[in-house]
Amino acid sequence: MNGLTAFIGILVLAALCKAFSLSVGVFIRKRLEDRARRDAPPTPPKPTRRPGFYHCPNCKCILEEVTIEDKVRNGCKGCGWVHWDNPLPVAVAVIPYGKGLVFVRRKVEPRAGFLALPGGFVEKEGLEAGAVREALEETGLEVAVDRYLKSVYLERVNQILVFFLMKPATGQKLKAGSDATECVFLNPPYDHEKMAFPTHEAVINEYLAQRQG
Ligand SMILES: [Zn+2]
């Protein structure tokens, strides 16, 4: 009996020790957190800023609203840099192939799996050169620009799509680039449900109407 009492006593003692060490740990952690909070510098007030880039690319200051020529833009009060927010130009190639046009099936979002005209952002080049390069990269076709078709501004993404009609590529082999699952030539009419972008579709329809007229 004495042995059992002693055993229970040891258990109770062990439990008390554990509870004590836990509460000491909690107490110390809380004191450290309080000190860290007290020593932290005060949070500066957030400057007013339009949506977009957060930091100045020159000096890394946080951008703030600046008014230039009656328009509010984001700017840097440290070095004077202004985010003009110019639209990005995208060159798009309309490539005739037989009686139809060349399409790529997109591998990446947006609109993965849907059909689009070959095209992309220009990079240290003119728009025509961008259309020629994108056509080659995305379809494997070596095509020259025939003529400018039209441009469309997309406000939602702040991009200008510039469409070029390319010289026919009939006879050349199609080879899909890395951002397409396949590259195909299709004869009209084109199924709206399979098209990636309404803008591409509208320009195609306009071009086909011109070609028939
Ligand atoms: Zn700056």
Please characterize this protein's 3D structure.
The protein folds into two domains: 44-85, no CATH class; 88-212, Nucleoside Triphosphate Pyrophosphohydrolase (Alpha-Beta Complex). The model has no long low-confidence stretch (mean pLDDT 90). The chain contains three helices and eleven strands, in the order H-E-E-E-E-E-E-E-E-H-E-E-E-H. The strands form three sheets. It has a four-stranded mixed sheet with strand order 8-4-10-9. It starts with a helix and ends with a helix. The chain has helices at residues 2-39, 127-139, 198-212; strands at residues 64-68, 71-75, 82-83, 88-94, 96-97, 100-106, 115-116, 119-121, 145-154, 159-166, 180-186. The protein is of the alpha+beta class. It binds zinc ion (ZN). Residues 56, 58-59, 61, 76, 78-79, 81 line the site of zinc ion (ZN).
Q: Which segments are poorly predicted (pLDDT under 50) over 5 or more consecutive residues?
A: none
Fraction of residues in H or I helices: 25-40%
Strand order of the largest sheet: 8-4-10-9
Share in β-strands = 25-35%
Largest sheet: 4 strands, mixed
Could you tell me the CATH topology label of the largest domain: Nucleoside Triphosphate Pyrophosphohydrolase
Class inferred from helices and paired strands: alpha+beta
